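seq:
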Amino acid sequence: MAGVNKCLKYSMFIFNFLFWVCGCVILGVSIWLRVSSDAQQKFNIQGSGVFAAVDVMIAVGSIIMVLGFFGCCGAIRESRCLLLLFFIGLFLILALQITAGILGIVYKPQLESKINQTLHDLIPLDNKNPELQQALEKIQEESKCCGIVNGIKDWGSAQPKSCLCNSLTDPSQCKGPYYKQTCSSVFVDYYKKNLLIIIGIAFGLAIVELFGLGFSMTLYCQIGKK
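struct:
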């Protein structure tokens, strides 16, 4: 009976350890996005639905950590059961990642109109809850923008100081006493940038996961021949 290739066995272990580390990183970054003050401000303007994507990433990071653990144990202990669990779980994650990446590419052109539609529903801003108003005012101050879609008109009777533009230091950004740029463009740029990062991560991890599927199945077959 043929023995298990030691090089393959320890390569599988190292791969799964790195895979486990990737799960830790995804989980850590996702939790940071969930509690980050910057993300809280931008996501709260859009509504709690945006946090659903972050929650999914938290779940994915946790699952990858569990799969990495199964893979490490399966490789070291030469357990076909654990290797098969790793293979099935990794294959399902790969299928979901590719689907998510394709959907991200397909719906990317519609992102701007969807965001503008969601933001338009918040107008007028002067009768919204104080927490949302404070979050938007901070974004206006940091990003040098005013209002969401129609500039200062979005605030109704309110005239927030964060909309005021200094015509001496920022003449090109002013339209009268207020900032010319609306904050909808800030949100669109923010989400487009993060969408590209997510798509890149999804397809980048897919390549790594293909190697993991190959390693696990090869080792699984070698253990079966012992």
